[in-house]
């Protein structure tokens, strides 16, 4: 009697390899702030710039995950996810501005500097409560979530799909960008918010606070990944992918496709808001430029390059494209936008399943 030893199939080996690679990647990221503490002359020293920009990329990876949940699994190609990201950033920015108090240029104990400059006599009602961190964090997820709920409900109920939905979401973010540029909105106009001082009592200019924000972003990325993974592997996730592939058939089988898509869209908007909130204190500024439709399109490119419908691919695409962008904007700044467009075209034509699809092809 012989004992047969079973070996994992190639797809299983690939999944295990991707999980192991992702775990190693997270561990490597987690030691970057520690390596930053080493002397500059040490060979393992990580510069302040690299820690700072990697923190930004982690926030972009959360945004890519949120978009992949909507586009890769529900088939909702949103060209407005940058709006949800920016709204979360503005909610955090409003909290940080309230914490400045009399330390501003004009020394007003309540009004931010730009309001004093514009002649405001009192704080607008929609600024009330933002001096509280829990309230601000609630707004970080609630404001993008409510906007996604309204837009998604009206769109999905009317069965607006495909390119028409993409145009609608892009129009939404463009309209918000124009609105936030107005000074009478009471949100800083074209200058936005900046000159932040502290968060939770910690100065934003210290290396310890920057490391704390880095780890907070990394934890948020891991939790976002686990939430999306749990959701997409459940029965709900299987129904969601069925809706993506053949919505009319799923509707014929008796499923409420509107509620399924709406839940995914709202959740993805909330995750994008969290990414924006973590992004702002690390970069030190938020302005209406974050609403630019180009930012939302760029996020779509991240997901496409990494591999639509694969959560690991979304993270991989965000880091790959932004790493390439950082290098090219210094090495060849005039060519970056052309290369970004060419990259998207090349991936669409030759790698429709992204980098993850390429790995699967080699794993056969």
Protein architecture, described:
By secondary structure, the chain is an all-alpha fold. It has a domain at 48-290. 69% of the residues lie in helices and 2% in strands. It is built from 14 helices and four strands. The protein has helices at 10-30, 32-36, 48-73, 81-100, 113-117, 133-157, 162-180, 207-232, 235-252, 257-283, 293-306, 311-331, 336-350, 354-362; strands at 193-194, 198-199, 202-203, 285-286. The strands form two sheets. Strands 1-4 form a two-stranded antiparallel sheet. Strands 2-3 form a two-stranded antiparallel sheet. Strand 2 and strand 3 form a beta hairpin. Helix 4 (81-100) packs across helix 10 and helix 11 crosses helix 12. The longest helix has 27 residues, at 257-283. It starts with 9 loop residues before the first helix and ends with a helix.
List keywords for this structure.
single chain, 364 residues, mainly alpha, two-stranded antiparallel sheet, 4 strands, 2% strand, disordered N terminus
According to DSSP, the number of beta strands is 4
Question: What is the tally of helical segments?
Answer: 14
Query: Order of SSEs, N→C?
Result: HHHHHHHEEEHHHEHHHH
Major β-sheet profile: 2 strands, antiparallel
Beta-strand share of residues: under 5%
Mean pLDDT: 87
Radius of gyration: 22 Å
Helical content stands at 55-70%
Biggest sheet strand order reads 1-4
The separation of the N and C termini measures 31 Å
Structural class: mainly alpha
Low-confidence stretches: 1-7
* Overall spatial form: globular
């Amino acid at each position: 009697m012989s004992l047969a030893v079973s070996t994992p199939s190639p797809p299983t080996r690939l999944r295990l390899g991707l999980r192991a690679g992702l775990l190693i990647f997270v561990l490597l990221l987690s030691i970057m702030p520690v390596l930053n503490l080493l002397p500059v002359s040490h060979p393992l020293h990580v510069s302040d710039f690299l820690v700072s920009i990697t923190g930004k990329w982690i926030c972009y990876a959360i945004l890519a995950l949120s978009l992949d949940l909507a586009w890769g699994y529900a088939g909702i190609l949103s060209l407005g996810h940058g709006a949800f990201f920016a709204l979360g950033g503005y909610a955090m920015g409003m909290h940080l501005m309230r914490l400045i108090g009399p330390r501003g240029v004009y020394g007003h104990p309540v009004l931010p500097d730009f309001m004093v400059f514009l002649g405001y006599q009192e704080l607008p009602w929609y600024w009330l409560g933002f001096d509280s961190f829990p309230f601000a964090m609630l707004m970080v997820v609630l404001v993008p979530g409510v906007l996604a709920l309204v837009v998604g409900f009206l769109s999905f109920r009317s069965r607006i799909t495909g390119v028409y939905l993409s145009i609608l979401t892009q129009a939404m973010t463009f309209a918000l960008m124009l609105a936030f540029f107005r000074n009478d909105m009471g949100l800083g106009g074209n200058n936005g918010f900046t000159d932040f001082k502290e968060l939770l009592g910690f100065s934003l200019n210290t290396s310890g606070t920057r490391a704390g924000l880095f780890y907070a972003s990394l934890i948020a990325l891991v939790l976002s990944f686990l939430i999306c993974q749990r959701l997409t592997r459940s029965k709900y996730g299987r129904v969601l992918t069925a809706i993506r592939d053949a919505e009319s058939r799923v509707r014929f089988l008796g499923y409420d496709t509107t509620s399924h898509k709406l839940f995914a869209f709202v959740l993805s908007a909330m995750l994008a808001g969290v990414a924006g909130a973590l992004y702002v204190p690390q970069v030190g500024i938020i302005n209406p430029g974050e609403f630019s439709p180009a930012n939302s399109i760029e996020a779509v490119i991240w997901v496409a390059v990494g591999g639509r419908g694969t959560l690991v691919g979304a993270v991989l695409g965000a880091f790959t494209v932004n790493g390439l962008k950082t290098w090219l904007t210094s090495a060849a700044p005039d060519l970056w936008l052309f290369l970004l467009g060419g990259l998207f075209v090349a991936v669409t034509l030759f790698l429709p399943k992204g980098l993850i699809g390429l790995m699967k092809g080699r794993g056969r």
